[in-house]
Amino acid sequence: MFKVAKNIKDQFSHAYHYLFSYDSEKLAIYSQSNTGILVRLGSALLKRNIILIRFANGHTAIGVIIKRVSRHRFVLADYDHKVYRIVNVNDIFRVDLC
User: Fold this and answer.
1) From the CB of residue 49, how many other CB atoms can be counted at a distance below 10 Å?
2) pLDDT in tens, 3-23
3) DSSP label at 59?
4) Each residue of 86-96: pLDDT tens digit?
5) In DSSP terms, which residues pair with 52 in a beta bridge?
6) How far, in Å, CA of 73 to CA of 97, rounded?
7) Which H or E run includes 2?
8) 3-state secondary structure 3-51
9) Does the structure show a pLDDT above 80 at 77?
10) Cα–Cα distance between 62 and 65 in angstroms, integer?
């Protein structure tokens, strides 16, 4: 009985912190520095994570980084691998890993 009550309490506390905690990383009004963007794109390239890229002009792209073309350019494959585009780091507002 004690184990069930502890499990319910832990799940409730996780849900509470997920819904009501303040996390400045989740806010999209702050842009990231170019070094932060490069670090996240590099780790997404190594781990093949799905990423959400927000551009400075307001457009978004979801996909997987598959190749690094040059120092500030990466190849982004769309989530279904039908569309490939070259992404320039200077045009990116924010990168979020999924």
Assistant:
1) 13
2) 777 777 777 666 666 555 555
3) -
4) 999 999 998 98
5) 62, 96
6) 18
7) helix 2-20
8) HHHHHHHHHHHHHHHHHHCCCHHHCCCCCCCHHHHHHHHHHHHHHCCEE
9) yes
10) 10
